[in-house]
Amino acid sequence: MPETMSQAAQPLPHVTHQRAVFADGLMLDCGAVVAPLAVAWRGYGRLNADATNAILVCHALTGDQYVAETHPLTGKPGWWDNVVGPGKPIDTDRFYVVCVNVLGGCMGSSGPPEPMTDAEGRTLGRPWGTDFPSVTIRDMVRAQHRLMEHLRIARWLAVLGGSMGGMQVLEWAATYPEAVFAAAPIACASHHSAQNIAFHEVGRAAIHGDPEWRGGRYWEHGTVPAKGLSVARMVAHITYLSEQALSRKFGRRLRGAAALTFLEDVFEVESYLRHQGSTFIRRFDANSYLTITRAMDFFDLAAEHGGVLAEAFRGTTTRFFVASFSSDWLFPTAESRLLVRALNAAAANVSFVEIASDKGHDAFLLDEPDFHNALGGFLRGAAERLGV
Amino acid sequence: MPETMSQAAQPLPHVTHQRAVFADGLMLDCGAVVAPLAVAWRGYGRLNADATNAILVCHALTGDQYVAETHPLTGKPGWWDNVVGPGKPIDTDRFYVVCVNVLGGCMGSSGPPEPMTDAEGRTLGRPWGTDFPSVTIRDMVRAQHRLMEHLRIARWLAVLGGSMGGMQVLEWAATYPEAVFAAAPIACASHHSAQNIAFHEVGRAAIHGDPEWRGGRYWEHGTVPAKGLSVARMVAHITYLSEQALSRKFGRRLRGAAALTFLEDVFEVESYLRHQGSTFIRRFDANSYLTITRAMDFFDLAAEHGGVLAEAFRGTTTRFFVASFSSDWLFPTAESRLLVRALNAAAANVSFVEIASDKGHDAFLLDEPDFHNALGGFLRGAAERLGV
């Protein structure tokens, strides 16, 4: 492995995140109670007087609440800096944008790296680690709902997000329909497929197989399962890109001399992937990765509604905007179409667009003008309807 | 990891393989000489008096020479037992079928687990390990050509194989055109794509990251990098299947209780993948896996011919049968079409079929009657042409 790997195989630095703490905690789908419940979040723009201009952005597996500002660990721009901001498609001159670190995450919300508490909420002097209970997408949404009440927002103008963020959008629309005026599930599906579960399981096997994982108690040893987490990131990263995107970016270009060699990083694509792995471990917690991937795997909205997806949206008045990307093979367009058919069966107000892009799943994060125009138009239409 | 993993984390048992040994060795593309050169092989059927009925079957990345008989390590049927045998599509009542363990493999041919030798061919008392030189697909084919001379076969009636086996077929047709009457490259491509390289690199990173790999010298410690090799197999295995095949086989079925849990193997697809990983380590060597995946990554037939694929086949008289499978996303039909276009540009005799199958890349190994009929017909046609 590159030298940077061992240098980085250290616990994440401590960062103080803005958060709301709810002493009474949250009961999860698995029956466990997390108390107190910490919800780390960020807001962009200004909430108007009647609190009608609030948009909730839900982040993906490895995203966080730092949507449109410098990231406190990486020093890089926010993950949706090209979409959220003054004059941008999600215009913070007009809207108040909220983003919450998901339950089970590692950026300040209750999750594996946070101090463990007992049933009475007393700190036990060590992190939760793998004792953090199993979390579902619905649990994540319930935690966000607690913050919503705390912020005295009665209804989101819109809830939107891509990938796992889109799963949260669907769960919001199904669980709190009255609280969601408009919903934009992007590059997602109503359930995680067998292939998606399989790729996640490879990542988990890599983490479990790293002796530095130490049965999940790596924090006792001042180390982290850097190599396992890096491999998990590498395989996931491939699924975020299309073959076309990889070919265009790297093709079969060799690094340096073209000599036949056993050396690592012979091809540029390998060097790129290893870089993705080694930077990821500096900002993400391995036990959070296990927790959140499992939450995605469990997601099956139809199963929560008697096996009929349309039942999740029965009687909804939420207006939906569903978007997929043509080269996304992790959440292919066919799965968005299934979702649209269910919304149609529930007589929902839904528009659907498949964006032509060769950038794969990651397209929802990248410069895709057609997508940005469509999303911006959807939000403006919703705002005008509400007179915001 | 399952308990079976640690039980199996032992060196591969010793098996005596049938092989030919060439004292003068083989010079490889990288400039190194492997001497002596050991070529482990198996034959099925009977070579006729004028040696015109010989068919060479080339195996894939994790295959071996045990095509149509019980495997000496796993006790399972040969990997193409459904295709090769008396009365089967590759009919051993009529043809003499030869299969060679590839150079760099771990079933008796020269490769990382075999005893290392010095420039004079003297055994150095330890395995090659990662000191085994880098191997190319062309090197593998050259080693097979040595065996061909040894067997006094002047021309193969046909050379055929799927996946990496198909790469060898193409290399045979390009390097020894006069020795190949008919060629069937199946479910393959003329080069390894950036995405394919990326998936291989994940597997290599998992092996390199396993401390039991010990810089490639695990044989000194009586252990093997079982967890890393298992993860490598898991991710590769996903690429061999289609999403449809995974969904049909497993869908989102849970194992046992459906409780939300951190336990491993919650979904059947996970259990299946882990099983694939843990059985693989009992029959394959990690350093061979590194060597052979690298050989596939290096494969770029056009690059060997001035960047023009058609040049590889200029003036060929070989008759080609190219087959792809509609749901194969590792070697998609588009790559077979590129190959067919190059063969057309070289005015080659070529037929092409895309088999409708939802089984993914692995379809070439499975029961696909349309494929078996087409392959059998191609071979019979070639045999009739030669009067065999």
UniProtKB/TrEMBL annotation, chains A, B:
Superkingdom, natural source: Bacteria
Reaction(s) this enzyme catalyzes, per UniProt: L-homoserine + acetyl-CoA = O-acetyl-L-homoserine + CoA
GO molecular function (one): homoserine O-acetyltransferase activity
Ranges in coiled-coil conformation: none
Domain AB hydrolase-1 per the UniProt entry, residue ranges: 54-366
Entries under SUPFAM superfamilies matching the protein: alpha/beta-Hydrolases
Active site, UniProt feature: 163 (nucleophile), 328, 361
Record localization: Cytoplasm
Pathway it works in: Amino-acid biosynthesis; L-methionine biosynthesis via de novo pathway; O-acetyl-L-homoserine from L-homoserine: step 1/1
EC number: 2.3.1.31
Binding site for substrate: 233, 362
Keyword Endoplasmic reticulum belongs to the record: no
UniProtKB keywords: Acyltransferase, Amino-acid biosynthesis, Cytoplasm, Methionine biosynthesis, Transferase
Gene3D superfamilies: 1.10.1740.110, alpha/beta hydrolase
TM stretches of this protein: none
Protein function: Transfers an acetyl group from acetyl-CoA to L-homoserine, forming acetyl-L-homoserine.
Subunit structure: Homodimer.
Protein family: Belongs to the AB hydrolase superfamily. MetX family.
HAMAP family found in the cross-reference section: MetX_acyltransf
Name of this chain's protein: Homoserine O-acetyltransferase
Native species: Plastoroseomonas arctica
